Amino acid sequence: MRDNVKGVVRQVGLPRIIIGGFFLLLLFTASGFGMDLMQIVSDIIRRWGMYGVLALAMVPAVQCGIGLNFGISMGIVGGLLGGLIVIEWKIAEMPSLVAIHPLFAMWVAILIAIVIGVVLSTGIGWLYGLLLNRVKGSEMTVTTYVGFSIIAFMNIAWTVLPFKSGELIFPNAGEGLRNTISLASSYSGVMNNTFKFSIKLPFGAIEIPTGLLLFFFLMCLLVWLFMRSKTGAAMSAAGANPMFAQASGINVNRMRLIGTTLSTVIAAVGILVYAQGFGFMQLYNGPMMMGFTSVAAVLIGGASATRAKISHVLIGTFLYQGIMALGLPVINLFIPEGNLSEVMRLIISNGIIIYALAQTGGESRD
Amino acid sequence: MTKNKITSFLFENKVVVLFVFLCIGGTIASGQSMNFVVSELLTRIARNSFLVLALIIPVLAGLGLNFGIVIGAMAAQIAIFFTTHWGFTGVGGFLLTALLSTPLAVFFGYLVGKLFNNMKGAEMIGGLVLGYFTDGLYQLFFLFILGGVIPIDNPKLMISTGVGVKNTIDLKDTIKYSLDTVPMLTIIEFGFYIAVAVMVISAVVKLAKKQEVNWKRTAVSLVGLVVVYALTFLPAVEQFLSSDRLRLLNAVELACFGTLIWQAVKFALCKARKTDWPRNRAIAACIVAVVVYALTYVPAIYNVMVYVQLPVLTYLCIAALCFFNTALMKTRLGQNMRTVGQSRVVANAAGINVDRTRIIAMIFSTVLASWGQLIFLQNVGTFSTYGAHTQVGQFAIASLVVGGASVQKATNKQAIIGVILFHTLFIVAPLAGKELFGNAMIGEYFRVFVSYGVIAMSLAMHAWKKVVKPKLEANAAAGASPAGEAAQ
Predict the structure, then answer these.
(1) What residue of B is the nearest CA neighbor of A345?
(2) How many domains does chain B have?
(3) In this model, does residue B480 exceed pLDDT 60?
(4) Deepest in the core among A268, B37, B467, B479, taking most CB within 10 A?
């Protein structure tokens, strides 16, 4: 009996049990106090799709051997640029496209943004991969600081880039792009609102953002297919055991380069998915800690610094965002003042990262 | 030969050289008076040097750049909150705060060291994430536990609901400038008493252990001390020393004359003991002292020197920490740390308790960081409860790296040079941005970019070296092994 329990704990992982338990506790508390549970569940599902793609960016990175990619801000920057260009060109407001259907115009806009973001982040990711191939063994430390640096560098860029649209730049002859850019006139909620429907239950209604979920699952499927392909398998092998992979004729550096680029590209797509769901694009220091959020999500899902699967992304993002969505209303019940949910986010997301580092760290890494 | 030397010197110090140029360029572009830049800079050196120097021990012990000093800063802030709440003021309040923060910092440092022993090789990223994690715990403590669990009745410090601490705490009436404004007279007086006490105690201890006591030497030092102390009773000297800050001009004059007198004394001693007298060095020191003194007569420099006032005790604390860092490395413990820093395997084989040495290094660093944060806060004068600690590690580490330190090597000199360069850039960057681009934010962003970028570069360089080195060694050792493998 005891061995059984131990086996289950080992298989599921202690942090997942704790966090899953915490999630259930919050859920029971919320329902016990008569909150609108269905609304919260809708919120969780919406957040799941919004943050999922960003967390998905961890899978190729971890599998190709560069470890947890704290530097997805490299890709995020590319995605943001794509989003900005689309607004500058006013694609979502083109009469010919709007004439077909407003939602269609928005889809064209976000797809063009994604294409631009992918092109840009492929270049960035490639250079980033070249850097990471030179710093093997210390990727996580380097990626974190390179990620911070690019955000700081883009802060300068956001103030000097020659965007003209009134929606983008500060009003009243201010200089540079705004901190927060509303997407209301471009592609706000385009995925969330596509084929959206509500499941009516006797005690409420769950809203399903079908377009968002479909897109998220499509991305997962693409990555899953890629991981099953010959290149994907070679990449995983290169990440799991570089010496062995090299011996069996796999170009490890090239695989790492592909994995890093892919991770960066997915991050670029992810930030656009996030932005359309949120309704705003955040520039400047907004995306600084997004790498940490994504890393925490996959780790909660059961990934480690050396192994990550799609299922980790799905479970992890759901649990993490579930706690975030539930935490605020439940905690406000007990402590109405202050922003405890932000405190909780800091503790949970960074606590899980430290736990993972302490697990994989130690002498074994040398 | 000399040309080669110069190029290699420049190459080895490329970061420092680059920043020297950036600082000079930025200062010129900012169009600020030297009075402003120098006085601001000296204030910032006094504020920040201690924190930067607190980073050196972990670097030498092989723990890398210690992002965990944030935790030391938190210990200091917890202590400061309580002493402010209890209403302690002045130097006494400051010392009590330091006393209170020390055990906290020791405890935290121990925990951090324990954790770092579980993530060897990933201490830096671990320390960074740990900083965010503890920030969460810190906020939990200050927002909910204080007032929520621990009742604190103080409307000045607490939010009106009684749960949670206000955003900023004004230290103006409590410990602001408490360390900076201690008059030199008091310092000398206390120094005298402490020195006498130390002498007496060491003599007593030696007698008790039945060791020989060098009475002649003790007597000479005692007489010297008494003479110095007696000098402070001269009205002119007393008046000069009783001001709470030292004018930069006087400091430079004192330093120049001090150097000359010191060299003369050394010369006399060497002749008397018939030991070698390092002639070239002594003459060079004297020439430098004279030249510096002569420079103070240049009107532009004179203006700056008269304008700027130095906090004496703060600078003495910084000097003491430099001395401590150097002295520690000469002890057995310091040597152990160095060995552990170079190779844990070798250290282990030599019978050094690697884990214990690393924990001790972390405790030292955390305690020093907490004192450093106290010095910082007493100088700034307002304590931003939720923000004062967040950038501590970032800026301190960037300063150290700008000074030419790396993940594995750091010295006092690099720390001080780094503080000077980094903070010069910090002062002038926004102003230069405004002058050059008509937008102060560009300068502001630029300095943030520099602080992140320089750390990223340093980390990448270190990692790169780590990859290249074994490869070279392996190639040298294996020789034709790739061909051999292919043949198999």
Answers:
(1) B136
(2) 2
(3) no
(4) A268
